[in-house]
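Box 3.1. Reading complex inputs
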Amino acid sequence: MRPGSSSKLLFTPGPLTTSATVKEAMLRDLGSRDREFIGVVRAIRERLLAIGGAAHGGDYECVLMQGSGTFAIESVISSAIPHNSRLLVLVNGAYGRRIVEMARIHAIEIDVLETPENQKISPRAVAEHLAAAAGITHVAVIHCETTTGIVNPVEEIGAVVAGAGAVFIVDAMSSFGAIPIDLNKGRIDFLISSANKCIEGVPGFGFVLARREALLGAKGQARTLSLDLHAQWAGLERDGQFRFTPPTHALLAYHQALMEHEAEGGVSGRAARYARNHEILAEGMAALGFEPYLSREDQSYIITTYRYPAASWFSFQELYSRLSELGFVIYPGKLSQEACFRIGTIGQLCAKDIENLLAAIHGVIGQMKQRCVQEV
Amino acid sequence: MRPGSSSKLLFTPGPLTTSATVKEAMLRDLGSRDREFIGVVRAIRERLLAIGGAAHGGDYECVLMQGSGTFAIESVISSAIPHNSRLLVLVNGAYGRRIVEMARIHAIEIDVLETPENQKISPRAVAEHLAAAAGITHVAVIHCETTTGIVNPVEEIGAVVAGAGAVFIVDAMSSFGAIPIDLNKGRIDFLISSANKCIEGVPGFGFVLARREALLGAKGQARTLSLDLHAQWAGLERDGQFRFTPPTHALLAYHQALMEHEAEGGVSGRAARYARNHEILAEGMAALGFEPYLSREDQSYIITTYRYPAASWFSFQELYSRLSELGFVIYPGKLSQEACFRIGTIGQLCAKDIENLLAAIHGVIGQMKQRCVQEV
């Protein structure tokens, strides 16, 4: 644990470890109609558009939505897809399946194109599906599937979707701000992410970067009040205020987090640190005998999935608890078929933190192995 | 402004001024699956039940829901009211109308019993409506209508609703924790409030205190994924975790806020401070010539509505801005018919803060009047 901090280091997909200055930005109470607060909200919306390569005044708009990232995704699914539409969901993990579940609840007609969890979604397979299945109006995909850490080829898929004249929805929850993504190049209509991911804010809201034309088309067709994407945007545009109470402290933290993201060199600066974190982790875990679930070329620097060692000494619960006691929080697996665990390399973590984690894992598994020998 | 704080004092219905210690509780990053965090969530849920007079293990359950208070209300309206139901909404302000709007979006059949905004809802009128209109299965009311600050007689209405065999839904957003309310005595099935109100936490989530039997009846009938009240509860019960990322920092703050609420003497202690705040405000505003919108016996100590003075020197925008510059944030009106503004007396405010606000108002309106004379 770092000196002066009572926080553990979080090697998870979020909530993440954030900087002290991001958290300290929450030591104020601002009114939700306060002029300064309205300025903070405006600055956040403009900066997010810029990170997506769509400067303010261009073709895109930014909508902030209270709740977790899932709430922001549901705001798109339940607002932007009219009745009599057909949504193709590209699935290679739990987050793709979550969109399927959401669409079913809203009685949206769906097609599912499923790819094994250890493979990227193939743009060619998407093209073939779109050619074979008539009437698909919307396509949804996960950019970085946090289930495994795999990154799907969003720009190539976007070209295929645009070619078919469909609306393209991208869940970029765990990638936005750290893996380059260009709204225009990706032909993206709706991109969704949340506060507590690679921009390194605290949880409390998500956001949607929407092509203005597609967003305007969502007017009056939302299936809820709270998650009405167009009404939320219209409110923010009208007077800069949220329709319903915003998480003021989380927004102050995010404003600070965006400044720190920019100071680190924006997406490329952050990508460089995370990539270095991942390299150190991959090398160290290999040396400790852990086998990654994904092949090297498919693995992102966001989060890495490791198979449980097929050895009698290994217990994930024990590894997790002992590491947690030492101040390092790792993450359970979410695969539908295999027993795995995950280690995130995003958040306010640097090379030294990864090295310390590796040393702790080395120590804990050493003890686990030794005790196993003694017991036998 | 208080020394050492860069926050303004908020005389609003929330987000409110919170204590330094509540905000400082956010200076940690906890993982959402962390054992300590799960303990914090459990303690919050138990304490909220106790404040509602329903100890853990009794007939009630506590469900926390991400987002603003409106999200928590929509989780009840969209989860707990089956198809083929009929909802009676008792309306004497904007928050009652919001429930009507929500129910319309979810295609729930509704009756509206409207009472003028300056009058309490009459339990007798409710009884007459229930007797005359067949088939009403659910009744919703606002406890303290923040539109005006009026408090509706929830226990008396609850007896009438129970007598008619209907489910009783109470929006206690701005009253819970400061105006006594007993779930059992009020025959309440669902009570909703949020984090940034009288418990004095920061915004980021709301909560529902639900009669277990009514909550179990909501299983499988939610109209959304994110706002599925029963699934959210089942997740919290299963492993103590939220289904989707919780606002970890806001929950840490709330845990601290609940301890401070208890230390102040719980609901009665907090009520005493807020009532004193209100008395000082009412006396001071009367001395300054401001006329309250509600009659004295209908006025709560939560928030007070004042009519715009019918005088050429008065400009609410100017009063608001000048007070804000001095560190005091007041609140605009929300009445459908009259030009009013509001001053809240809840949050981490004491007698001295109200006196300072009154002195500031005195100064600002003095200057406004003087300038008006000079211009004439």
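In summary: Chain A touches chain B through 61 residues (CB under 8 Å).
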